[in-house]
């Protein structure tokens, strides 16, 4: 069974994510078109092939220079967040990849089937070579996954899971302790990249020269930069660029300057305050799966009263915050999930979704109600958001006292319910590409990140249904019904959805603009 072309932009015909008992495969004739944009996931890519490079006949359009926001934190150990650099350089690959809608698609695994509720069998792609020259085998896959399972701390995507892996011929069998409909999605995490056995030595994992992607890491200079060259034995269409030259530039002003001067071809995360100093055609705003939300304490204090929470909800002027603090470079929140999930907005027209919101109480009249409002300084915009929210809340009768600190010094108090209200910039899609884990963590009775201290039977039931639903359209609908149940409590008032500003000099083609920040330079990326 095939999936219709997910966007006119992606030429490959891809195989649908499997249902229980069904097998997903990509035929050999489709492999070349699938990997022409490795890890592209159906995202919007710019440009086309240059005159000197075409599929199957790689030209040399020069090297791509990239300025990253953060240097490696753990010497590129894939068990850390450094894994996302490996995927953004297209040097390390996973068994499965995600498309724009969050569907699981083949990568180093050509297909899979779910044999029963807890057993999955993955077919490993043939003729894949590591950068060492060794051929990928099922044993290599098991080795990499087992290192992730045994890692301390365990990669986020595996936290709370219990699974085992074994090779069976050219297949890999993954068994989970409990039914897990999102297992293929978990295997898309860059922290579960498959590396050559030589990368693992004791507690050290060194990905240099050990991946399978179209680019090979040939040198890493600590927190200064890295060098990657095109890998000519790549299993798909070779990279069009001859290599990637990476610089780590934590200072946002310096990154913007590198874009203006052309010192970098592709630049991560241009600060909003610097965007105006760059030619508009060089910057691209990418909606992020991150929502700025006002969490209200439903357990104690004034906001234990649903009508008082409704008064706060009605006081918020999102457009004013976006215009002033974000200079218009953010999206007004209609719900907890934003435009980085393309399916979310249309499902808010569901009758059951609208019905859940109709039961919200009318706002109470407040006069001098004292509340504490907390947030943190680590994200420069949040203290400014707090100032504007204070003004908006006081305009309807609240008496607001702010408490603003560094995140490391305020998180524990926020989770303990020390504030009546708290402003948080929160990632809504975690490593699996699925937002249900975020909803469960933040809004269920047993949630481990419940700043709102919410415990509501209807919310728990709705999130429970979403958790157990198989991946696909029905899970998306169940997720949105769970969002509606949360919003109906006014425990969380979504303010805005953030965008990241990516810089690309004129002449860059095919740089991925990825809301999940998993990919950046692909095999198709090249310069005029």
From TrEMBL:
Gene3D superfamilies: Dipeptide-binding Protein, Domain 3, Periplasmic binding protein-like II. Residues 106-447 form the Solute-binding protein family domain. GO terms for molecular function: peptide transmembrane transporter activity. One of its GO terms (biological process) is peptide transport. It holds the Pfam family SBP_bac_5. CDD domains: PBP2_NikA_DppA_OppA_like_3. This is ABC transporter substrate-binding protein. The lineage of its organism: Bacteria, Bacillati, Actinomycetota, Actinomycetes, Micrococcales.
């Amino acid at each position: 069974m095939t999936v219709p072309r997910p966007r006119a932009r992606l030429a490959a015909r891809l195989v649908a994510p499997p249902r229980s008992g069904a097998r997903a495969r990509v035929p050999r004739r489709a492999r070349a078109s699938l990997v022409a944009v490795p890890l592209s996931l159906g995202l919007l890519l710019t440009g086309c092939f240059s005159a000197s490079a075409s599929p199957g006949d790689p030209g040399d359009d020069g090297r791509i220079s990239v300025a990253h926001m953060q240097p490696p934190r753990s010497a590129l150990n894939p068990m850390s967040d450094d894994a996302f650099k490996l995927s953004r350089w297209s040097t390390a690959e996973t068994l499965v990849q995600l498309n724009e809608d969050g569907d699981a698609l083949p990568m180093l695994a050509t297909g899979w089937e779910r044999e029963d509720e807890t057993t999955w069998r993955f077919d490993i792609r043939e003729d894949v070579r590591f950068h060492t020259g060794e051929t990928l085998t099922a044993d290599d896959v098991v080795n990499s996954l087992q290192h992730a399972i045994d890692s301390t701390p365990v990669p986020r995507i595996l936290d709370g899971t219990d699974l085992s892996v074994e090779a069976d011929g050219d297949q890999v069998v993954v068994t989970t302790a409990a039914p897990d409909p999102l297992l293929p999605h978990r295997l898309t995490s860059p922290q579960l990249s498959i590396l050559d056995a030589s990368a693992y030595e004791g507690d050290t994992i060194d990905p240099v020269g050990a991946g399978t992607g179209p680019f090979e890491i040939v040198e890493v200079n600590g927190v200064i930069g890295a060098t990657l060259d095109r890998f000519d034995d790549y299993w798909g269409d070779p990279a069009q660029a001859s290599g990637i030259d990476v610089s780590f530039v934590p200072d946002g002003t310096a990154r913007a300057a590198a874009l203006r001067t052309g010192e970098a071809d592709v630049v991560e995360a241009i600060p909003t305050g610097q965007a105006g100093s760059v030619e508009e055609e060089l910057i691209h705003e990418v909606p992020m799966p991150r929502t700025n939300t006002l969490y209200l304490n439903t357990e104690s204090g004034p906001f234990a009263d649903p009508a008082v929470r409704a008064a706060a909800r009605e006081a918020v002027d999102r457009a004013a915050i976006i215009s002033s603090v974000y200079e218009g470079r953010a999206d007004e929140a209609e719900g907890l999930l934003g435009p980085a999930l393309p399916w979310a907005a249309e499902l808010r027209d569901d009758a059951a979704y609208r019905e859940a919101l109709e039961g919200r109480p009318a706002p109470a009249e407040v006069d001098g109600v004292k509340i504490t409002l907390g947030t943190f300084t680590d994200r420069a915009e949040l203290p400014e958001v707090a100032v504007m929210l204070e003004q908006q809340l006081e305009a309807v009768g609240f008496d607001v006292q702010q408490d603003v600190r560094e995140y490391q010094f305020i998180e524990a108090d926020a989770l303990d319910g020390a504030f009546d209200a708290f402003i948080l910039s929160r990632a809504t899609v975690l490593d699996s590409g699925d937002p249900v884990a975020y909803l469960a963590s933040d809004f269920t009775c047993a949630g481990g990140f419940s700043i709102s201290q919410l415990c509501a039977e209807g919310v728990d039931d709705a999130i429970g249904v979403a958790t157990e639903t198989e991946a696909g359209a029905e899970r998306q609908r169940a997720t949105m019904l769970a969002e509606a149940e949360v919003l109906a409590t006014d425990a969380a008032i979504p303010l805005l959805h953030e965008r990241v500003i990516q810089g690309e000099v004129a002449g860059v083609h095919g740089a991925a603009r990825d809301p999940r920040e998993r990919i950046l330079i692909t095999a198709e990326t090249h310069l005029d």
